[in-house]
Amino acid sequence: MKHIIINVGRQLGSGGHDIGRMLALDFQAKYYDREILNLAAKESGLSEKIFEQNDEKKGFFRGLLNLGMPHLGGGSDKPGFTQESLFQFQSEAIQKAAKEGSCVFVGRCADYVLRDFSNVVNIFITASIGYRIEQIMNKQHLDFDAAQKFIEQKESDRASYYNYYTGKKWGAAESYDFCIDSSILGFVETEKLIAEFIRKRFKI
Question: In principle, which of 63, 99, 184, 185 could form an S-S bond with 54, CB 3.0–4.6 Å?
Answer without folding.
Answer: 63
